[in-house]
Amino acid sequence: MDELNISAYIQIVQPAFMEHDKQESAGVFLFDSINLQELAVRREFWTPNIDAKKISRLVSRQAPVPDEMKQASLVTEIAAGVVVYFEKTVVKDLNPFTKDDALEKLAKLIEIDSAISSKKKKSLLAFYEKDDTGKFLAETFLYVLSRPNKVVDDWVGYEDAPLLSETNYECPLCHNGLVEYVKDKPIKRYSITHVFPEDLSPELSVDFNAVHKRPAVLDSPSNNIALCDRCAESYLLAPTVEEYGSLYEIKQQLSNNYKARIAANKIELEESIRSILAALIDINETTALEELEYDALHLDEKFAPENFILKNETKTHVLHYYRYIEAVFSESGADFDTIASEIKMCSKLYENAGLSQEEVIVKLADWIRKRANMGENAKLPCNIVVSFFIQNCEVFHK
To answer: d(Cα 32, Cα 364) in Å, to the nearest integer?
Structure first.
């Protein structure tokens, strides 16, 4: 132990208490120096339910100090109240036979921690040298609230890649990015989280199991999901049955989408599709476009009623470009039947994965663009090609 943080602080002072000599009790006892202050409650710094689980995660360095506690410690009046609490309450619970051992251990840790500035070391140790126990413990406690506590592994592990890809590198709950690039280096901003948590109470475990059965192996990929650190911490500290049910459904959808995407990537697309896309890109004001007859449309049979705007957008593409694409296919010598079969196969994968019609169109257009090795300027032409195949019955069942 060579780093001063809330984990080290609790572990050092806990054995010195008489009444609060257990980990949970010691942690709650210390945090009460803020939680019991009327000003902290009034200013909404109060962090309820500081229980065994939260203390355990702090001591094991699986969790950071709650932001509310950090903010509270920076308020002058609250910080002064913490000192009073330590002097009047905490000091009274110190075991006269073991307190000096704990105080010396804390002082030595302050001395060896290279991350603490010389000035801060001097100010904290001054209270220790003067035997001002209450002030020494209080000021050190206030200081560690602002020190990093959670062990942060910045390295983005290769084994996390499938789970990150599954979420498209975005937290599925808050949609913040899971990886941040700092000076071209990928920095981890996520936690691989168990959907069915591993440390539930027996009662809660029964309730969770009634919603969706507990997996045989909690560490299996099917029970893991990549969440941003904040969402992971919020979920694991106090998971509810409702949150579990929601996260389970999200995981299933992400997993299905990912499997469909992997399967789609294995489907080849005829190279000749490039000629169709190139022809669409080259359209200009002088290009003769023969519009499709309106009564030839059958898109009403393909779209759900709630997708009215999406249907109208597709209808516009079909009316203006269907005949043109049809002619380009005829003149280019492209294998229409093979391309249609490949697009139909890919479309079915996305549809069967439970994606919405809008998502299917986006995914399918992106798949066509990448398979044809086309750049960003081909996005709209790819959407138009998808519309062509919706009209042509390769995309979406009636």
So the answer is: 56
DSSP annotation of 288 reads -
- Domain boundaries defined on the chain: 6-144, 158-265, 273-391
pLDDT number for residue 116: 95
Query: What does the pLDDT average to over 70-94?
Result: 95
**List of residues 6+ apart from 239 with CB closer than 8 A:** 197, 200, 204, 208
From 314, 289, 317, 285, select the one nearest 300 (Cα to Cα).
Answer: 314
The full length of the chain comes to 398
Please count the other Cβ atoms lying within 10 Å of the Cβ belonging to residue 22.
Answer: 14
Query: Residue 82: which pLDDT band, with cuts at 50, 70 and 90?
Result: very high
One-character DSSP codes across 244-264: HHHHHHHHHHHHHHHHHHHHH
SS3 369: helix
Distance (Å, rounded) from C-alpha 36 to C-alpha 46? 8
Q: Phi, psi (5° rounding) for residue 170?
A: -135, 135
Q: Is the Cβ–Cβ distance between 254 and 351 less than 8 Å?
A: no
pLDDT surpasses 60 at 10: yes
Q: Give the tens place of pLDDT for each residue, 140-174.
A: 999 999 999 887 667 787 889 999 999 999 999 99
The answer to whether 35 and 46 have CB atoms below 8 angstroms apart is yes
